[in-house]
């Protein structure tokens, strides 16, 4: 069981411009490397961060065109878990109302997109989504 | 800050291999689609996407790959992938792409199994 003490914390305030998700993924890599996470797990974290940021850019419709991404290294004494929080101040959505995308449906559909949350849930150990009129916060964690 | 994608094509007997270098996002996906549809126009119905040079993709780019898979199904062609990073492989498995486009560990095996009449 990972301890919940925050050993290190980094927050980025990123403008909602194309490819800013790459900047978030670079920070994810640096923080995960600092806690000696394995390369394959770092890659998974990187991709999940990219997807969470893209969701914020594409779907939040936020007036404040900024995404805040916080990286927290958690543990009792040594780093045990990386927790990443991606926040926007957009219009929010109802996570439960989002249908589960299925490849067989997407192949027949005009709309091929809508995979972000499924990918994030598949790549991270824990994912929570809080969304409402004041925006959306995705909290995702991965053990070292 | 732009992460562009370079696409190169190797036309072989009955099959074409598309090599990517860089980030597969919406622009990257469009570059792959452009190369794929050009090959279809030239008569190639078996395409192999070698992603050895791609370390990161996003779901918008993958959605464009799904469009290519749909097109290949329509024309009774074949699209396969090889040389994926473990994370890209896992992502494709999560999305179910492997049900419609086979994934191979390396190019030699992919070419051997995808070549027409193999």
For the structure shown, list the relevant keywords.
heterodimer, A: 144 residues, Heat Shock Protein 90, 35% helix, globular, B: 118 residues, alpha/beta, Transcription Regulator spoIIAA, 4 helices, 42% helix, 26% strand
SSE arrangement:
The complex is a heterodimer of chains A (144) and B (118).
Chain A: E1 6-15, H1 20-34, H2 39-59, E2 66-74, E3 81-88, H3 103-108, H4 116-123, E4 126-132, E5 135-143
Antiparallel strand pairs in A: 1-2, 2-3, 3-5, 4-5
Helix pairs in contact in A: 1-2, 2-4
Chain B: E1 5-12, E2 15-22, H1 26-41, E3 46-53, H2 59-74, E4 78-82, H3 86-95, E5 103-104, H4 107-114
Parallel strand pairs in B: 2-3, 3-4, 4-5
Antiparallel strand pairs in B: 1-2
Helix pairs in contact in B: 1-2
**What's the Cα radius of gyration of chain B?**
13 Å
Q: Briefly, what CATH class of chain B?
A: Alpha Beta
Q: Structural class of the helix and strand makeup of chain A?
A: alpha+beta
CATH T-level topology of chain B: Transcription Regulator spoIIAA
| Count of alpha and pi helical runs of chain B | 4
Counting helices, strands and paired strands, the structural category of chain B is alpha/beta
**Distance between the amino and carboxyl termini of chain B:** 43 Å
Helix and strand run of chain B: EEHEHEHEH
- Beta-strand residue fraction of chain A: 25-35%
| Number of β-strand runs of chain B | 5
Write the CATH homologous superfamily of chain A: Histidine kinase-like ATPase, C-terminal domain
State the name of the first-level CATH class of chain A.
Alpha Beta
The largest interface is:
A-B, 30 and 30 residues
Give the end-to-end Cα distance of chain A, rounded to a whole number of Å: 12 Å
- CATH level-two architecture of chain A: 2-Layer Sandwich
CATH architecture descriptor text of chain B: 2-Layer Sandwich
E-strand count of chain A: 5
């Amino acid at each position: 069981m990972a301890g919940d003490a925050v050993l290190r914390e980094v927050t980025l305030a990123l403008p909602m411009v194309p490819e800013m998700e790459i900047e978030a993924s670079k920070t994810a890599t640096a923080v995960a490397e600092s806690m000696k996470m394995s390369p394959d797990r770092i890659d998974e974290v990187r991709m999940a961060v990219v997807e969470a940021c893209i969701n914020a850019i594409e779907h939040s419709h936020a007036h404040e065109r900024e995404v805040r991404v916080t990286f927290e290294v958690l543990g009792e004494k040594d780093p045990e878990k990386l927790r990443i929080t991606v926040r926007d101040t957009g219009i929010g959505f109802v996570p439960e109302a989002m249908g589960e995308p299925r490849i067989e449906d997407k192949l027949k559909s005009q709309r091929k997109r809508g995979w972000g949350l499924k990918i994030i849930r598949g790549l991270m150990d824990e994912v929570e989504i809080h969304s409402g009129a004041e925006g959306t916060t995705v909290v995702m964690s991965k053990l070292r | 800050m732009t992460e562009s994608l370079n696409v190169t094509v190797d036309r072989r007997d009955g099959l074409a291999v598309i090599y990517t270098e860089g980030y597969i996002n919406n622009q990257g996906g469009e570059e792959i689609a452009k190369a794929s549809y050009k090959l279809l126009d030239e008569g190639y119905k078996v395409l192999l996407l070698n992603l050895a040079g791609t370390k990161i993709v996003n779901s918008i780019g993958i959605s464009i790959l799904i469009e290519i898979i749909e097109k290949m199904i329509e024309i009774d062609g074949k699209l396969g992938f090889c040389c994926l990073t473990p994370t890209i492989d896992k992502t494709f498995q999560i999305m179910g792409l492997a049900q419609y486009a086979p994934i191979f560990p390396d190019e030699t095996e992919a070419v051997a199994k995808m070549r027409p009449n193999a």
